[in-house]
Amino acid sequence: MKRFILIPDSFKGTMSSVEICGIMEKAILNNIPAAQIKSVPVADGGEGSVDAFLSAMCGEKVFVTVKGPYFEDMQAFYGLIEDGKTAVIEMAACAGLPLVEGNPNPCMTTTFGVGQLMEDAIKRGCKKIIIGLGGSCTNDGGTGAAAA
């Protein structure tokens, strides 16, 4: 019996760690049908961090309309774990590099949407918030989030 442990990070701007695990598992099983596979999606604090937490800890993904990097309305998300007591927020969900592709200007971008995600989590009763700071397209030092 062949055993495999899959532990990929996301491919920035293209596929999440969960998606990559699925593709890898399918490819392995196509070649080794009896393989035992354990997938462990991971992330470095940027894109895919919420999905990695939800995969590991079982939780709920919450979608919220917030301000994007250039203060435009957009749909973003965060995760709820530990029976809704803890929120997992990734900055990349509303202030990430893929959101400014072709138009990066860190002097004009904001983390305001991250603060809006935090506010929503608090209103839902979260007592703890974990924030992944990777993949940011901003350099406001979190002042946008604080302003929200």
Q: Could you name the key traits of this structure?
A:
alpha/beta, 6 strands, 5 helices, globular, 148 residues, four-stranded mixed sheet
Q: What is the element layout, followed by pairings?
A:
Elements: E1 3-6, H1 17-31, E2 36-39, H2 49-57, E3 60-67, E4 73-81, E5 86-90, H3 92-95, H4 112-123, E6 128-132, H5 143-147
Parallel strand pairs: 1-2, 5-6
Antiparallel strand pairs: 3-4, 4-5
Walk me through the structure.
By secondary structure, the protein is an alpha/beta fold. The chain has two domains: 1-42, no CATH class; 59-147, Glycerate kinase, domain 2 (Alpha-Beta Complex). The protein is 30% helix and 24% strand. It has five helices and six strands; from the N terminus they run E-H-E-H-E-E-E-H-H-E-H. Helix 1 links the parallel strand 1 and strand 2. The radius of gyration is 17 Å and the shape is globular.
- End-to-end Cα distance: 54 Å
Which term fits the overall shape?
A: globular
Unreliable residue runs: none
Largest sheet: 4 strands, mixed
Run of helices and strands:
EHEHEEEHHEH
Could you give the order of strands across the largest sheet?
Answer: 3-4-5-6
Question: Can you tell me the CATH superfamily of the largest domain?
Answer: Glycerate kinase, domain 2
Provide the CATH architecture of the largest domain: Alpha-Beta Complex
